[in-house]
Amino acid sequence: MFKLIVLAVLFTMGYSQLTGGYTNRPDLIHSTLAAQFVKLAKSKIEGENNLYLVNDKVTHVETQVVAGINYKITFTADSLLTSSSVICTAVVYQNFSGAQKLTSTECI
Ligand SMILES: *[C@@H]1O[C@H](CO)[C@@H](O)[C@H](O)[C@H]1NC(C)=O
């Protein structure tokens, strides 16, 4: 039984390596870093889509090491004007000096 669990974990890790090398970081979901990145992503999304998002909640954080770190943050939020909800994914790149840049945002 234990061996099966180890195999399953190894398979999952190998699989995540194949799909872009992102590592799941549930430990960062409630971090100030994730909150800061959501704030950054929200203002860009709001500006581009003429939305006002409230009740944002981080649901998923993944990181990828690439001459720095890519943080992929998934969060949900409610649109105040249309009273609908969105699920957004933002990628923030942080280089080795700590400079942060929002590289992509996408909402569905
Ligand atoms: C990180 O980015 C900042 C701002 O673009 C730049 O000044 C700095 O040299 C970069 N550091 C590295 C290690 O690439």
From TrEMBL:
GO terms for molecular function: cysteine-type endopeptidase inhibitor activity. Coiled coil: none annotated. The keyword Cell division does not apply. Residues 1-16 form the signal peptide. The keyword Signal applies. InterPro entries: Cystatin_dom, Cystatin_sf. Gene3D superfamilies: 3.10.450.10. Keywords: Signal. Residues 35-78 form the Cystatin domain. This is Cystatin domain-containing protein. It comes from Didymodactylos carnosus.
